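Model it.
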Amino acid sequence: MNKIKWITQAIAQPSSIQKELFPDFANVADELAVEWELALDEVNLPSITILMSDEQKASIKRLDDYMLSISGPTNIQFWNDDALCHSSEWEYMRTLAREILLSMGWEMTAPAKSDAIYINKG
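Modeled.
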């Protein structure tokens, strides 16, 4: 569960730390969403879900459901660096990520930058 731990720790951080996890040219809000989606593939494997409690699954679902509720073309304003730094939507996502960390028993520390995977759109 390395991917889900990394991205959950990343989402739980303040925007200043989140921005340090990616190259300067990256749209950090968008990158965090992409990393989250990739991590969900790992979490949804039967060999992983069987190890998780109902509360752990529910905490992950709460964040995923919220992210989906503010996704799509009509919500593009939530997926840029300005929103990452200043929006209540991102503050709420950070809160939901901290709830996942608590339920999983994971540290609330920032993940290592070297673990980041980013999409180069350049």
